[in-house]
Amino acid sequence: MTKPYVIVFNGLSLDGRMDFTSKGDPQADIGLYYELSARWKADVMLSGSETMVTAFAGQDEVPLSNAPKELHPLAVPLVAIVDSRARIHCWNAIKQQIFWKEAVALVARSTPRSYLDELESKNVDYIVAGEGKIDLAVALEELNTRFGVRKVLVDSGGILNGVLLRAGLVDEVSTLVYPTLVGGTSPKAFFVAPDVTDAGQVLQLNLTHHEQVRSDGALWLKYKVLH
To answer: Where are the domains of the chain?
Structure first.
């Protein structure tokens, strides 16, 4: 099997914080972020359960509409959501979003059978990969085999980013750096993972693209991960 090409892309403040956009920062241009995202022409957007639970809070009981949806011009074919702990129940709301055609859940063998039954009842496809936790390497290969996924765009928080980066599964790192400073001690960084214990764990990157994308100095940076 073949692993798809994986890009991690996030909007950040200059000090690497990802939470400033949720606070209504007037400098955070979400439209620009998604316009840049579309340039990769990814086959799937990969997201974590925390991101989706937060985004769709209170929408667990939304009924599934039978009306055809008109896809957004920047829509991706598929959204894949990591959810081994059976946290997401708002699948109807997720499926009706115009930013992707279909949705798939990534689960583990430890995921309760009752949750798989729920997914099946809502016509949500799923991939079982790993025992207690999702084996993301296996899940990525299965996305390639079953859905023809060649390019994955990770649109999630620092925890999923950290798992992918530490596992050596990321090929490209991209950031849209806004001219802001946030500060703070909560784990809202782009890369959340255990502290390194030796220099060999530090990931080395090679800058492949840099561009000022707004007059205020917002920068789009792209790096290749050196494995």
So the answer is: 1-27+157-227, 44-149
